[in-house]
């Protein structure tokens, strides 16, 4: 496809790497920035277009002003507009219509039109913001917008309507809606805002949301582009100057700001999701988010005015993210797509959110480091094997199979650990019904006997509460699989404790584990993370952890009366606890789900 001609003397292909354009003519007069069509505003788009202009199964939802769908560039686009049913009827505000039309054109402008968009073959859903000057955005509107687009089937949600927050946090209503979307595997992209860092913009400040800042055409940061601790670890920067888009009535004009930049990032995220489909993979919006973050190009002091934090986690680098998506694809036969779109020119960082992940063997001083997290139910770890493991100091005995993640300041933000054992030993062979407790027993027996292990059993992965839903658990899982592979083990197995099973203690675990989403992935977030990482659900460990105690102990652990025979529902328990008053004890038998990861 050919782009419309660029304005005279305007280079293509994205920003100059280090602010080398002065913006001055030889006579010293300011030169206006060159307007760029969306594909010219992001280096690597035209190369990616060789393989996909978007996949019709990928749906982009955006909450913005109502677009002018009669604009010629949107003729033929698969775009529908949803009204915000919770807002009072109002006449369309011209400024909002202009904003929504710009966003729609950058995403869905059709090939050969006056404004070709980035992902014209994707499906679009516009949730129209019809508020006026008397109806300010509030957390309820924001939460409803996220829920509406999630319910409509969006894979990517661009949330453009600003909700200002001076605290760097957001209302609980909005946080819950964002978490529902993230738990469903949906990517939320939002502008960082244009407030010079004086306040934050929700939902961009929330962990897991991909926040987008703006830089100039010469590669230097706009000083109005928001930055600060709330954006750290989940933000990237894209071109936010002189980006061309459609205007109501059939015109085209350039815009600037983080809302221009966020449309570019949303478009390339949809292209990467489409590339996953083109490569035979399931579309994974959160993996695309992580690919964009870990490949973001660090900025220089010259680009940031001496404050590199202004660049958030770095500049958008679509070629590097494309390489990463290609690298995750299964091997393809001769004649299929090449393994990369562009040559590799630099390494990729090791994990999401700029965390450093190593084994405990590499950093033994972190073996006992604590992580701030919500407290677990007190009865967990009261089983015999759990008490034994605590006394044995597993990460000191098996430091090569413990991993730890630290942030830029050196604080521990995540850890994971497992134990090696010989699954092929006589009398074993199958994953045991005894799950967590059984593999601990086998691991210590093999250690005493000197039996060579062939399998790593995962025991736990823990992520600090403010770093959750940002891909770090998946990075720790990948690091544990790598640790097993480099030591010659054949596979990794995990007795998985599903994240949401405690909400349904009466549901049999086998029934719960069979539930899937429309894309075929498990409905439970933690099971889904394992399957995305290449795991396969194997079976149910029906008695993975057994906790028996006196009624006095259970009352102390749970603060419940335990004064009735039979099943007792306990907060945090995956199944009911069975109480026997006559025998003065209660027993909890927790099932887990066996997931098997075969290693190359």
Automatic annotation (TrEMBL):
The keyword Lyase does not apply. Residues 1-10 have a biased composition (Pro residues). Residues 96-300 form the Peptidase S8/S53 domain. Residues 1-34 are annotated as: Disordered. One of its GO terms (molecular function) is serine-type endopeptidase activity. Keywords: Hydrolase, Protease, Serine protease, Transferase. InterPro entries: Acyl_CoA_acyltransferase (IPR016181), Peptidase_S8/S53_dom (IPR000209), Peptidase_S8/S53_dom_sf (IPR036852), Peptidase_S8_subtilisin-like (IPR050131). Gene3D superfamilies: 3.40.630.30, Peptidase S8/S53 domain. The keyword Transferase applies. It holds the Pfam family Peptidase_S8. GO terms for biological process: proteolysis. Belongs to the peptidase S8 family. This is GNAT superfamily N-acetyltransferase.
């Amino acid at each position: 496809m050919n782009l419309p001609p660029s304005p005279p003397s305007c280079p293509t292909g994205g920003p100059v790497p280090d602010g080398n354009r002065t913006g001055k003519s030889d006579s010293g007069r300011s030169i206006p920035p060159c307007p760029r069509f969306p594909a010219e505003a992001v280096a690597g788009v035209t190369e990616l277009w060789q393989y996909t202009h978007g996949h019709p199964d990928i749906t982009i939802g955006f909450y913005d002003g109502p677009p002018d769908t009669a604009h010629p560039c949107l003729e033929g686009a698969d775009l529908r507009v949803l009204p915000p049913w919770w807002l009072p009827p109002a006449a369309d505000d011209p400024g909002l219509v202009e904003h929504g039309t710009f966003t729609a054109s950058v995403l869905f402008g059709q090939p050969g039109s006056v404004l070709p968009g980035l992902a014209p073959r994707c499906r679009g859903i516009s949730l129209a913001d019809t508020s006026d000057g008397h109806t300010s955005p509030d957390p309820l509107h924001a939460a409803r917008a996220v829920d509406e687009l999630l319910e409509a089937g969006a894979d990517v949600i661009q949330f453009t309507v600003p909700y200002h927050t001076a605290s760097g946090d957001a209302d609980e209503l909005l946080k819950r809606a964002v978490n529902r979307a993230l738990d469903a595997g949906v990517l939320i992209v939002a502008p960082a805002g244009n407030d010079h860092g004086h306040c934050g913009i929700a939902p961009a400040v929330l962990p897991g949301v991909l926040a987008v800042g703006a830089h100039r055409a010469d590669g230097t940061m706009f000083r109005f582009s928001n930055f600060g601790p709330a954006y750290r670890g989940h933000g990237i920067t894209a071109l936010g100057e002189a980006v061309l888009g459609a205007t109501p009535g059939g015109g085209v004009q350039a815009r600037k700001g983080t809302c221009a930049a966020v449309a570019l990032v949303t478009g390339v995220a949809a292209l990467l999701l489409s590339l996953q489909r083109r490569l035979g993979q399931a579309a994974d919006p959160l993996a695309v988010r992580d690919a964009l973050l870990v490949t973001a190009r660090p900025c220089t002091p010259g680009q940031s005015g001496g404050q590199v934090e202004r660049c958030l986690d770095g500049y958008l680098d679509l070629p590097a993210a494309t390489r990463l998506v290609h690298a995750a694809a299964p091997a393809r036969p001769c004649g299929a797509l090449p393994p990369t779109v562009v040559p590799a020119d630099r390494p990729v960082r090791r994990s999401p959110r700029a965390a450093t992940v190593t084994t405990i063997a590499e950093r033994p001083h972190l073996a006992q480091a604590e992580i701030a997290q919500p407290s677990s139910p007190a009865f967990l770890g009261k089983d015999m094997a759990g008490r034994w493991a605590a006394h044995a100091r597993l990460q000191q005995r098996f430091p090569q199979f413990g991993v730890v993640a630290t942030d830029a300041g050196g604080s521990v933000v995540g850890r994971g650990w497992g134990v090696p054992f010989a699954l092929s030993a006589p009398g074993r062979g199958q994953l045991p019904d005894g799950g967590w407790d059984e593999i601990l027993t086998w691991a210590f027996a093999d250690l005493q006997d000197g039996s060579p292990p062939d399998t790593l059993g995962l025991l736990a992965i823990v992520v600090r509460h403010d770093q959750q839903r940002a891909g770090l658990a998946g990075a720790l899982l990948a690091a544990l699989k790598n640790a097993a592979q480099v030591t010659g083990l054949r596979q990794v197995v995990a007795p998985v404790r599903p994240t949401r099973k405690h909400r349904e203690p009466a549901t049999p675990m086998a029934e719960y584990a069979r539930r899937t989403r429309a894309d075929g992935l498990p409905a439970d977030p933690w099971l889904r993370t394992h399957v995305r990482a290449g795991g396969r659900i194997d079976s149910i460990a029906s008695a993975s952890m057994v906790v028996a105690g006196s009624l006095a102990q259970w009352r102390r652990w749970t603060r419940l009366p335990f004064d009735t025979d039979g099943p007792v529902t306990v907060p945090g328990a995956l199944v009911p606890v069975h109480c026997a008053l006559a025998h003065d004890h209660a027993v909890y038998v927790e099932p887990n789900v066996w997931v098997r990861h075969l290693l190359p």
